[in-house]
Write a structure and sequence with these properties.
Elements (H helix, E strand, L loop, with lengths): L6 E5 L4 H12 L3 E6 L2 H13 L4 E5 L5 H15 L4 E4 L14 H29 L2 E6 L14 H19 L4 E8 L8 H4 L2 H9 L9 H12 L10 E4 L27
Parallel strand pairs: 1-2, 1-4, 2-3, 4-5, 5-6, 6-7
The chain binds nicotinamide-adenine-dinucleotide.
């Protein structure tokens, strides 16, 4: 078991990638703190974690509030004695063209998706620094390495998450606390469900991935659990793309001729 006896917090653990990470961490032996604003969905995750034979607590909170982040760390230590890792996944997306993006929507996405990542990592990180060990994982996106048009402040928050992972790794690495970032590709979750409900869009989204399919939340959770574990003991300030190759696939969609002069047939996969 990769996380036997460890205590892991997952923000946004009530749904999607966060939920998959809670369940996989539990199956690998972790105690899990599900930190989310949605108590009902968090209770569903709690049931799934307990079905793995693990212990779970729910921390109903708003990750963008410093007082909530501190309470998250305090309640986790109270329940399980310490904190060994945190995955920051909570997000609220507000799509918008840049010219229409309101100050309120910019603040909301940055507050949850970037400031909230910092506040939760700081609160949990203080406990990890005290014990001299820990692992912090930020969920970014391929939208953090490529500008995601029409997604409002999303790409900016996600690019910031990568730098936050680097900063944690550089600043706390010599005190036993590693910081890393996972950048998922396209994953059907409640956040993206409406998009994937359209068969034409779903097929088109799969077609732009070199592997010919979109990913599953569990495939992102695998990377998170590995980074949380001691098996990733020398991985620090790294960004791991888990996207089927999508972020590197631009040439696949670029018309042209091959070196022999033969016209390249455009092929989705
Ligand atoms: N689904 C994808 O295709 C995809 C791709 C790349 C990156 N990501 C990233 O993965 C992470 C998880 O996304 P998902 O698709 O699982 O989304 P999701 O909507 O299924 O889950 C997000 C969770 O965050 C919680 N949340 C929202 N605001 C909160 C707040 N203020 N405080 C506490 N909790 C809050 C929600 O209640 C929900 O449980 C996000 O950081 C997202 O940007 C997702």
């Amino acid at each position: 078991m990769m996380l036997k006896g460890k205590t892991i917090i997952v923000t946004g653990g009530a749904s999607g990638i966060g939920r998959a990470t809670c369940v996989l961490a539990a199956s690998e032996g972790a105690n899990v703190a599900i930190a989310d604003i949605n108590k009902e969905l968090a209770e569903e995750t709690q049931g799934l974690v307990e079905a793995e034979g693990a212990k779970a607590i729910i921390i109903e909170m708003d990750t963008s509030k410093a007082a909530d982040a501190k309470r998250m760390a305090d309640e986790t230590v109270k329940a399980f004695g310490t904190i060994d890792g945190i995955v920051c996944s909570a997000i609220k997306l507000k799509p918008s063209a840049l010219e229409d993006l309101s100050e309120e929507d910019w603040d909301m996405v940055i507050d949850i998706g970037l400031k909230g990542y910092f506040l939760c990592a700081q609160a949990a990180g203080r406990v990890m620094l005290e014990q001299g060990s820990g692992s912090i994982v930020f969920i970014s996106s391929i939208g953090g390495v490529q500008a995601y048009n029409g997604a409002g402040a999303y790409s900016v928050a996600k690019a910031g998450a990568i730098m936050l992972g680097n900063l944690v790794g550089v600043e706390w690495g010599n005190r036993g606390v590693r910081g890393n970032t996972v950048a998922p590709g396209q994953i059907p979750t409640p956040m993206t469900a409406a998009m994937f409900a359209d068969p034409e869009i779903a097929a088109g989204r799969a077609a732009v991935v070199p592997m010919g399919r979109v990913g599953e939340a569990n495939e992102i959770a695998e990377a998170c659990v590995w980074l949380l574990s001691d098996r990733a003991s020398y991985v620090n300030a790294a960004t791991i793309k888990v996207d089927g190759g999508q972020a590197e696939s631009k040439m696949m969609h670029t018309p042209g001729r091959n070196w022999g002069g033969k016209k390249i047939q455009y092929k989705a996969n």
